[in-house]
Amino acid sequence: MNRRRALQLLAALGTTGLAAACGNDTDGASGGTRGPIKIGLIAPQAGGLKAIGDEIVNGFQLFLDLNEQQLGGHPVTLITANEGNDVKSGKAAVDELLSQGVLALTGVVNSAVMLGIRDTVEKARVPLIGSNASPSTLQSVVYIWRTSYVLDEAGRALGGYLKEQLKPGSRLAIIMPDSVSGEDVERGFREEFGSSDPRLAGPVVWTTAADNPGKTAFSQDIRKALQKHPDAILCFFTGEAGVEFIKQLREAGYKGPVYAPGFLTEGTALESMKNDALNIQTALNYSADLSNTANRVFASEYRKKLSSSPTTYAMASYDAAQVLHQAIQLAGANPNPQEVNLALGKLGQIDSPRGIWQFNQPRTPQQKWYLRQVQRDGQVLSNVLISELATLG
Prior knowledge:
Layout: H1 3-13, H2 18-29, E1 37-43, H3 50-66, E2 70-71, E3 74-82, H4 87-99, E4 104-107, H5 111-116, H6 118-124, E5 128-130, E6 144-146, H7 151-165, E7 172-177, H8 180-193, E8 205-207, H9 219-226, E9 232-235, H10 239-251, E10 258-261, H11 268-273, E11 281-284, H12 293-306, H13 312-331, H14 337-344, E12 350-352, E13 355-359, E14 365-377, E15 380-392
Parallel strand pairs: 1-3, 1-4, 4-5, 5-6, 7-8, 7-9, 9-10, 10-11
Antiparallel strand pairs: 2-3, 11-14, 12-13, 13-14, 14-15
Helix pairs in contact: 1-3, 3-13, 7-8, 13-14
């Protein structure tokens, strides 16, 4: 086996799967008859969440590139469908992909869309590997799996950290979008930090959940939060909304500490924030500078292909491809969606760029969480790994 092939196999399966992959490679060389399959990928192709959708496509496609465009020994046709920005468009994307006979689905950025397509996916009995954070209210599912995290876990990771970090007498203001996602993060935070902790500077300030907020969309709510004279702010925003929130927060004169789930400073959002993002601390299940074999391969190949650092969105989608690869391999030469779904339940530990993880009973990852801080690396801003926070899930 040459070095290039070994690298591909290491990226595809991690160190724990290398021996099995070598056997599969031999099968292919001897004229295996595994036929082509279709995988459907749902992601927004326009609007404020498009950048996240692009990362999800990039991560899945990178895995295919490193695995000769195959999953489980089957040549793959990856069919993408536009998630849009609401449940109606998301459901239309699912229906379109199901009509084309896909073996499995993946993607989905918007939490509301994930909730809205639940019954369609369960009724179709086609596995969906969601590759972005999903709401805690998505429960009792059989065909929906997730490789990112459940939204309240981000709040729990930050709650445990700030409970120890904030000094007595400090005042923490919380600003959240009025959405399912915001409610999940806020609830998870309070569970760990304590709802009656005197360091909380009053009730949560709920603000707009728009993906493309205007240049004054947050101004009034930011003023309301700053009237509490906080020593630190906890928030949760993603994509363009996060960029606009931080810009308006700094314009309002606040220069103090900001804490958030890591989506706030991921990918192009961090580039757009520029110096406004310096020193923001975030909790996330991934950092591009994690030192493990799987991440060294993933991050190196991602940077080589896309000339940028990988994000948690790309990583979770890469892992979605990885678990599908292993499940399809287990399902045999002529798998159907139900067999692939059963095989997903038999997977053990996944050797991932984030570190080792595995599916728990609710079909979400049990995984480590990390603290990161935005720092300058030469001329580039980067989410620098500070420490481990907790294992959740």
